[in-house]
Amino acid sequence: MKLIILGPPGSGKGTVSERLAKDFNLLHISVGDLLRKEEKKKTELGKEIKSYIDKGNLVPHQMAVDIAKKAIGKKKNFIFDGFPRSVDQARSIEELDIDAVIYLDVQEKEVIKRLSGRLLDPVTGKTYHRQYLPPPKGIEKRLVHRKDDTPKVIKERFKVYHRETEPVIMYYQKKGILKKIDGDGKPEEVYERIRKAVIKIR
Ligand code: AMP
What is the distance of C-alpha 155 from the center of its chain? Predict the structure, then answer.
């Protein structure tokens, strides 16, 4: 099964795709996570990546596509999280024959609330939330806010989302493989809606 999960920043793509990966035995590919890993190495490439992420902009087209394709390797069961983020990126993975695209539909007001309480574990790369997804005991002290979760950068990420990523939703809708899921509500309820939709795809 080859899946894509799309949605605005803070819609829960990361958390949902991690769970789907476990439940359906898929490789979870988050281009954002892979970029942050490279950034941490502080290489020349890492510094370049940082300059895009910190401003809330997308990294260059070819860089995102190369990272995503390399991550798949020979795997036939995977879920792309936050990729493709533009129609050009979507066109460049046409040959992969994606089975379904899950679109997490969440109100902008709600995701802004979620983003402001979001915490990142720099050791594992996992994301938690003060209220909705509290971290396990003992790791609270090492958790940090993502640098791109500040009001100014969030605003820019939404601009980019509306301009570049929303057309991707239409692109897959036209292909007839888009599954729109109501992303409002408790994480457990949202996940159950998605799990049921994925079972139907299988
Ligand atoms: P995320 O963790 O998915 O919120 O991504 C964090 C940041 O990584 C984004 O704001 C972009 O700067 C970059 N990024 C992630 N995925 C992509 C992509 N598919 N294309 C370009 N840039 C990306």
Answer: 17
